[in-house]
Amino acid sequence: MKLFKYEEYEVKVAPEALTLGPFKKLWSRDKTKEKEKATNELAFLYFYCDPRSDYQYITDDDDRMEAVKEGIGLDKKWKPDTLMQRAIDFYKTFDTTAALLLRSANLGVQKVRDLLTTLEPSDMKSLKDYLMVMKLIPEVAAMIQEAEKKMNEETEYGEARGSIEKTLLDDGLDDMAERVKQENN
After folding, report:
1. Inter-axis angle of helices 124-155 and 97-118, to 10 degrees?
2. Are 106 and 147 in contact (CB under 8 A)?
3. What pLDDT does 103 receive?
4. Which pLDDT band, with edges at 50, 70 and 90, does 177 fall under?
5. Within 13 Å of residue 102, how many CA atoms lie on the same side as its CB?
6. What span, in angstroms and rounded, lies between the C-alpha atoms of 83 and 87?
7. Average pLDDT over residues 102-130
8. Mean per-residue pLDDT over the chain, rounded
9. Strand partners of residue 7
10. H helices then E strands: how many in the chain?
11. C-alpha span between 81 and 79 (Å, rounded)
12. Where residue 136 falls among pLDDT bands split at 50, 70, 90?
């Protein structure tokens, strides 16, 4: 989603994001001039929901929520109210297929991590399983890293000529044309 970005140590909210119902309501209910509460809530949304967030490695929603709250300085007792929950649910509808697959892959990695902590390498079968999983870790890590890179590329939009923005489809066609050229040479 290009409505929220994290750069220069802060979450940047595109003006058009505030035209979307749930985000607009969060912004509008903060009647203060500085909009500190709204800014914190929108930052929470980004870090909690966005697949580009550094907190996405935390696969358990409750644990991720606590980590984000602590990270951005929200009160420990703070919990999403109805309006915030609507914004969370709405934000999640913007997940791309790549983001959904990456979430699933991260859940799988978490299960493997849990398995490694419970395996007892004292018996031969467990030791073989343990060593087999250990051999796969670099490959799995590389695949996850590549998936994250692709997902981040998917959410970035390059500039085309004039004021027209390139779309994901344009980039996909460019990549495909390049691959076809390479195969024919």
Report:
1. 160
2. no
3. 73
4. low
5. 25
6. 6
7. 75
8. 78
9. 10
10. 7, 2
11. 6
12. confident
Q: DSSP code of 165?
A: B
DSSP 4: E
Angle between helices 82-92 and 36-49 (to 10 degrees): 40
Least confident window among 96-100, 147-151, 168-172, 178-182: 168-172
What does the pLDDT read at residue 55? 92
| 50-53, Cβ contacts within 8 angstroms, sequence gap of 24 or more | 50/1, 50/4, 50/91, 51/95, 51/96, 51/98, 51/99, 51/102, 51/103, 51/151, 51/155, 52/6, 52/151, 52/152, 52/155, 53/6
Residue 4: beta bridge partners? 13
Residue labelled with tokens 């050229």? 181
Question: Distance between CA atoms of 66 and 62, rounded to whole angstroms?
Answer: 6
Tokens of 102: 């990456």
pLDDT surpassing 70 at residue 179: no
pLDDT of residue 24: 94
∠ CA(97), CA(86), CA(70), 5° rounding?
Answer: 85
